[in-house]
Amino acid sequence: xxxxxxxxxxxxxxxxxxxxxxxxxxxxxxxxxxxxxxxxxxxxxxxxxxxxxxxxxxxxxxxxxxxxxxxxxxxxxxxxxxxxxxxxxxxxxxxxxxxxxxxxxxxxxxxxxxxxxxxxxxxxxxxxxxxxxxxxxxxxxxxxxxxxxxxxxxxxxxxxxxxxxxxxxxxxxxxxxxxxxxxxxxxxxxxxxxxxxxxxxxxxxxxx
Length: 208
Prior knowledge:
The chain crosses the membrane at residues 24-47. By secondary structure, the protein is mainly α.
């Protein structure tokens, strides 16, 4: 009797184990292979530019070819020349390093962060010829990723005069370029208006 019970229990355990293994294989194929492949196919067909990294050519045009790209519309670059709009600061590695994406992890009351912000504010005010009180927050603070490609219209506005002078353009022309590369709130209510620094600088290079 005991032997029959043990054999029955083993048969039940084996049956349940095989059923669990089959379910594991099915879900592995569905969620680990079929679904990712389906989403990749949809992305390549419906959104090829976004699916391939939102790459941008030197003339500002979108491309899906890495060999033609000078950057991604989703990743900031360290523009420093007077003829360029500058991005916000970065705490990612040596700056804008996609392999070291992240913030400084310093709290808003950390004395080192407060001192750094004050130094940046004074330097920014001197560079752009504005009052320190007029320097926007995103001009002196890094984003959480350290890779934010956008700046606020306010930060762009204080850079217009410098860029216009360096390029020999009128302030009105540079302001127009900024306006053309300013995106509004998502769906009209999400986020804040923003200026893509890479696309703006490439447009100015192409036009100048």
